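Moderator note: this is an archived Q&A kept for reference. The question asked for a predicted structure of one protein chain; the sequence and the answer are reproduced below.
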Amino acid sequence: MEGLDHSTLQLGRSVRFLVNVSLEQRFRERPLLFGDLAERPVGVTYDDLDRMLTLDEERGRLQHGDARRILRTGFVLLGNGATPTYLAVEVSWSVDVSDVQRAAERAGLLRKAGHQACGAVAGWRIQREALDLAERLGVGRVIERELDGEDPAGGDEQI
């Protein structure tokens, strides 16, 4: 029986991982969903982000480990307003406190390197504690249930 419990747990983790990957791709392909957080946002490719961070390292603005942490961000958008602003976006089906903390931390690292930046989280829903923390830290939110107003799956099922 123990093997079955372990297999079920592993299957649940795999499903959560795949759901989050799919959700991240969905948000990455729709940068205008973030239009309330950054003016005319566009996606930043990992190649462009890597080049920018490499220059920041060479100029002494970032440590190597900080640059790698930024590269582990879900994805990065660039708002093309009067002051270009990067959005460090963390994505999760159910956004929690750690997602908000990572978004804030990675935006802080971008600011440390001299870039205008804000953190953002995106997901299907957000936990109350995460919502409160996001408001306190100034982390923007794009939450599907807030956009759509309903859950097509019919409830608050846990994935």
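Archived answer notes: The chain is about 50% helix and 20% strand.
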